[in-house]
Each structure stands twice: as structure tokens, then as C-alpha cells.
Amino acid sequence: MTTSPERMPIRTEHDLFERWEDLMGGGGFGRRSLWLIFLDDDGRQSDLIVPIDDIPMLPDPRDVAAITDLIARIRDEVGVAEVPMLISRPGPSEMTEGDCRWAVALTEALRDQHPRWPIHLATRDRLQVFAADDLLGSRAS
What we know:
The chain is of the alpha+beta class. About 35% of the residues lie in helices and about 20% in strands. It contains four helices and five strands. It has a five-stranded mixed sheet with strand order 2-1-3-4-5, with helices on both faces.
């Protein structure tokens, strides 16, 4: 008996990258969205997947606060340990300033929760992680 990919624990960044690839499939994206998945202490994914569609090009502090509040409520209700995030959007694979600002805003807003996982970006033809170097210039903006 084999275990379906969504039931395999996510324990490494490579595991998370593969899970995003499995969840996103081969199609492109018609909307800017923020995707949240929820992992327990053992890295197993909850059945709950939350896409937040039509996020603006640039993060607004109220939107970021609403997202962090949503994450906190779900963590309390479902009992999850980690919340990996993915930003998806149509268009070319190059990271935009808006992409980086979203990643910085979310990283900073959730800093007290000590997030383990990097935020990812999915475009029509590429899945990539926001590395620290990608975010440095956006912190000053």
C-alpha cells in the first residue's frame, strides 16, 4: 500500500517544494492568491487548504493583519503547528517588487510565531522559494 502525496509528512524544504508542485499542478494561475496549508507537529498536512484570492499587488497592513488573525484562529481551532505559504499569480516567473513586499510583510508579521518554512512563489511556469537575498531590497521599501 502506498501513501498518497498529501499524506506524506513534510519534513524538509524539498518535501514542501514537492507538495506545492503536487497541489499546484501544471496549469497557470489566473489570479493573485495566497495559499495556506496547515501541518501538525509531525509534518502531516491537514485537509484544510486556504486560498485567499485576488490579493492586491502590494500588501496593505490591514490585509496582512487580517491574514495573520486568520492563521492564528485556524491554528487554535485545528491545532496545527506550522503554516507554509505560497503566493501565486499569472505572468512571468521573475519575482516582482510586489511579490517580494508580500513575502517580507508576511514574514515580519509572523516573526513571533517563528515560522520554519520559507514562502514560495508560483507563476505560470515556475515554482520558486523567496530566498533571503530576494527580500533584502524590499525590507527598505
